[in-house]
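#struct-help
A.M.: can someone run this one for me? Single chain, 211 residues.
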Amino acid sequence: MAKKPSQRRNFQDEEMELNLTPMMNLIAILIPALLVSTVFVEIAVINVSAPAIGTAPDAEPPKDKPDKPPLNLTVTVTDKGYTLAGSGGVLNTVGADAEAKGPTIPIIQSQVDCQHYLGTWPPPRSKNRSQAKCEDVGPRTFWVYDRGALTKKFLELKDAFPEETRMIIAAEEDIEFEAIINVMDSGRESKKEGDEARELFPEVVLSPGLS
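D.P.: on it. Structure tokens below:
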């Protein structure tokens, strides 16, 4: 009686060695690429409320009048400095007479590290265009926004209005967006060495004039 074809074959198990060299080469290339990408890719998120369009619906007047009116803090950025205003009007100019006209916190001349502005000028650039651009790494003197005085003023307002968290930002048309981001960063929180961070005005609303 003839055997089945499968029974006539003589099968033998042979051990095969896997060639892992291509896979190891691929992993050796991927690991440095992933490490490099994690160093240079930075993602930052700033919560900003878009300006409202149109008029708000009629609301019922509050029954009880609050003891203290809301702050309604507004920071206007110009090429001359920061102008801060609230429900009581424009705040007095820092370091000047109360009757003087001008921004609340005027721009100052200060040393700037050119490493952050290679090929351009620090904001406000309209005030610095008469000087040479930052070409080399190192400190140079430019007109800059006084962010230290701005943070100090935010702390004073927070002490007077501890429940307030909202800030409205407006700016002139030729103001760099970088200067607006600096206002957001200065108004988000204040942290001194050895102390916990103190929240200031993290809720930002952009003026309808900004886009």
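A.M.: thanks! Residues 70-107+145-211 form a domain with the Nucleotidyltransferase; domain 5 fold (CATH 3.30.420).
D.P.: also worth noting: The first strand starts at residue 48 and ends at 49.
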